[in-house]
Design brief:
The structure is a homodimer.
Chain A lengths: L17 E13 L3 E8 L2 E8 L5 H8 L6 E10 L12 E12 L16 H6 L1 H4 L3 H23 L3 E2 L17 E3 L7 E3 L5 H9 L4 E9 L11 E10 L3 H20 L8 E3 H8 L13 E2 L1 H4 L5 H4 L3 E7 L7 H12 L9 E5 L5 E3 L7 H11 L6 E7 L1 H18 L10 E5 L4 E4 L4 E4 L14 H4 L8 E6 L2 E8 L4 H10 L4 H14 L7 E7 H8 L30 H6 L2 E3 L2 H5 L1
Parallel strand pairs in A: 3-5, 6-9, 11-17
Antiparallel strand pairs in A: 1-2, 1-4, 2-3, 4-5, 7-8, 9-10, 10-22, 12-13, 13-16, 14-15, 14-16, 17-20, 18-19, 20-21, 21-22
Helix pairs in contact in A: 4-6, 4-16, 14-15
Amino acid sequence: MLRTHTCGELRPENINEEVRLSGWVQKIRDKGALIWIDLRDRYGITQLLFKEEDTKPELLNKVRSLGREYVISATGTVIERESKNPNIPTGDIEIKVTGLDILNPSKVPPFTIEDNTDGGEELRMKFRYLDLRRKPLRTNLELRHRMAIEVRNYLDQQQFFEIETPYLIKSTPEGARDFVVPSRMNEGEFYALPQSPQTFKQLLMVAGYDRYYQIVRCFRDEDLRADRQPEFTQIDCEMAFVTQEDVLKTFEGLTTHLFKNIKGVKVDVFPQMSFDEAMKKYGSDKPDLRFGMEFVELNNVAQGKGFNVFNSAELVVGICVPGCAEYSRKQLDALTDFVRKPQIGAKGLVYVKCNPDGTFKSSVDKFYSQDDLNGWAEKAGANAGDLLLVLSGDANTSRKQLAELRLEMGNTLGLCDSNVFKPLWVVDFPLLEWNEESARFHAMHHPFTSPKKEDMSLLKSDPAKVRANAYDLVINGVEVGGGSIRIHNKELQKQMFKVLGFTDEEARAQFGFLMNAFEYGAPPHGGIALGFDRLVALFGGHDSIRDFIAFPKNNAGRDVMIDSPSPISEEQLKELNLSVDIEDAKEL
Amino acid sequence: MLRTHTCGELRPENINEEVRLSGWVQKIRDKGALIWIDLRDRYGITQLLFKEEDTKPELLNKVRSLGREYVISATGTVIERESKNPNIPTGDIEIKVTGLDILNPSKVPPFTIEDNTDGGEELRMKFRYLDLRRKPLRTNLELRHRMAIEVRNYLDQQQFFEIETPYLIKSTPEGARDFVVPSRMNEGEFYALPQSPQTFKQLLMVAGYDRYYQIVRCFRDEDLRADRQPEFTQIDCEMAFVTQEDVLKTFEGLTTHLFKNIKGVKVDVFPQMSFDEAMKKYGSDKPDLRFGMEFVELNNVAQGKGFNVFNSAELVVGICVPGCAEYSRKQLDALTDFVRKPQIGAKGLVYVKCNPDGTFKSSVDKFYSQDDLNGWAEKAGANAGDLLLVLSGDANTSRKQLAELRLEMGNTLGLCDSNVFKPLWVVDFPLLEWNEESARFHAMHHPFTSPKKEDMSLLKSDPAKVRANAYDLVINGVEVGGGSIRIHNKELQKQMFKVLGFTDEEARAQFGFLMNAFEYGAPPHGGIALGFDRLVALFGGHDSIRDFIAFPKNNAGRDVMIDSPSPISEEQLKELNLSVDIEDAKEL
């Protein structure tokens, strides 16, 4: 090794030892008689010391030629530091350097390698290898490493086998858009990259593997948002001979294990809430339970009083914001502007201030008496000092709008503490959702999800009403993952494909292998997939997953560092029997 | 859970407990008054018992309706078995069944689910989920799971970070053929699937991550052999601030750890042999050291005696096969046929029997006296009773031919015990090899491998002579992996690309990001990649990797189970701006 110790390792007990350290020049302070260098590696920072009076001129010249981010190797003696630095573990010592090798010089980096850098997003993406030197990113990737280890430790203890499934699989039109891979050996045919190992993990259950997991890359060719990547990582699991409750308990165990071993916090209450209840109480299937402000339906007390906006609404619904009765006109206007934003789309916002003296002041005072408003407050459980915020209209729409307002108020009031973790199982999802564009039902989870036994009779008569054995794990309003108990019966699977608008031929061509497998002793089974990028970001206290991925792509799906994707050669295209048809290209 | 215990769990101490087991019907024996069923799951087999006299007719009927591979769930009492089966851990008990659920019936499987099945290769590939139920495959995949865990345990202890690198990267013409992935969002452009994360792991070193590993899928679009797959898994590692010796020691540690924890054997001698020595002594850069038969060069003693075949040969080279002097004419003819096979291509084989009485009998007696042959025997260290086998011709060719013969003799003589493990580092590989077809040098390892300092001056004058800081780990004649100390200097990397025939523009277009990175403080670094499929197969005592992969592809790169690759829709092609050009298709 080109070092005897790392830059995070030396302590007072090493004083007088001869050591060799290697790393990057973080900082140089040249006071003439004394020169200090902060030497950095993955493990920490150690201070190097050069005294002009007892350092050879040759070495001094070398030291003075150094710049930021040079890679050097220094030999010397560990000595006690005069002015100790209590902020770093090596702060009690420094190295009195007697020898120095410049292992590689460095140009001045295009941005500073500091916790708060001066580099913009695009520049940092292009020089990702420099951005990754910054401590926040190193901390994120170390967190990811440790979480992967703990995930595997837990699942291994629970008898799960890690089994690798193929990446070159088959394109299926159901679900999101596939990335495809042309086959050279099979002319005109394509593999697809997996959106998830769904069918393979089900086949592993048919094969008797009982408990499977994998931390696995998945691919979706979707238009990207800030928190989506074309390739993402999933903790993918499946279990045989289980009920829904068994799956939930197992993954509560995993989550608890991670919170304990990674964050040192005890999180072991996992309430369950039906999809319907979540939509009614929070207007969302992934409610943030770190704070209250449950929805209150006000139709009874708010309708029939001459305020036509409410009278004509399917739903009048509000939240009680604690302690905000003193909000100024300006603050209330800002909230109205918030709900009127095009992404939210409410027409307006009604407020009721529950004044400390027991009176009420609302934006609809000309329609409602103090008594009326008192009725609202009572219904909402509002106390003196609270603020009621009320929306109305079509039930689904107003709920979604109010959900946004609720989150906004939670953030504004500082109720979204990233060190508090509130998990929740959302259960009893609808099996199907109607898709206007294709004018048919789509599977809400995926086509392999089983319907609830008691709703089976509705599958023909009223498919929209059928609930699924499906569940989502939500933590702090983030959908961390989801799963279901699967269909394991060929006839039911056929029926399901029919409801989803597949002809028998289509179903057979795409999923024939799975339906065949169901005829050879498929056990009851179910599973879950957790978004690993998102889970790590949640543990790291961030919303965006990008800085928890070593080499992410930008919003156009490009890796700007390696400049990919890129054109390939005519020879490659020819070998694949492909030609590229682009209008512009043709015109050239 | 649809069970209280697994089928591998119950012991005499559970006698009288009420239990529920679920699994697959392995075997039914119906003796009229008594029916036994072997119930199987991943964990083992438990015997179920039904006594006709005290079983309800309804239940008996159900039992008699069962067939092989039905999935059932049985409740009953654990009782002591009358005739115990010492071959299975549950052999002391059985279950007196009182309740039975058929969870799923099964058609008769197309082949038997036994250790030695009657199913052919193609059929088993098509019904892979049934083949995977067989114990040999389950054992292989469990071995793979356990090895992955131990690899991670060791590397984590050694401070390696597991860091995921992207799968959608950039196509480069160097090396094998890439699989490419058309980008919809970037018209006419393609990603490539990684042949290895080589450049990314080097960038992680530049980023200061110090020690990286990943168990990662890699892809090569090559024509397939029995032991090659288009996608394969690699234990991929990189370390900064290391010398070659540091890398070797670290991965000797990993190998020793695996042998100890997986096989329970102590393997800690890792000899090093130069490429030149390996070629001279064994005619191979991956010699099997489980047995001797080192090559002996006989030019001195065999040339100049009137035998023109030898006189005109660049090399006369032989092996001494111990104890085979009694080989019959037929056996010797078979060996001659072996070396004459087109894949080996020798013209003939010369033998010398060292008879027990001290005389010699050879196929070239008319050219050589007993004294001459005694000279050969002495040179070869042959004792009475041994057999000398000798080839001649062009040096490289004869060595390769003799290497095949040596392996054949090792196998024939039972010297290749799959429970004996003999690792070896082959070092000092040539940096470059001349490629006749492209009439230029190719990198023997890859273009990022550093030349040995002492050979650097030859890089311009005699590139073929330059040795690399490259090494292969060979165990029992299997190349388990290889690596190198990398170039970390931009100028040297540029020079290397030049030697490999890249123009500056080509080098910049393809690897500009890496050469740029070298300008911002790249540390000295090196690494290794081990073939995980091959390593697991080696530990499992098999040559072929296919049965150590859950869902392998066949020799045409097809997954015959899911029938992939397959055509994709016109709509998909259009979205990707692609069209398929196949002669046959055009004629339709």
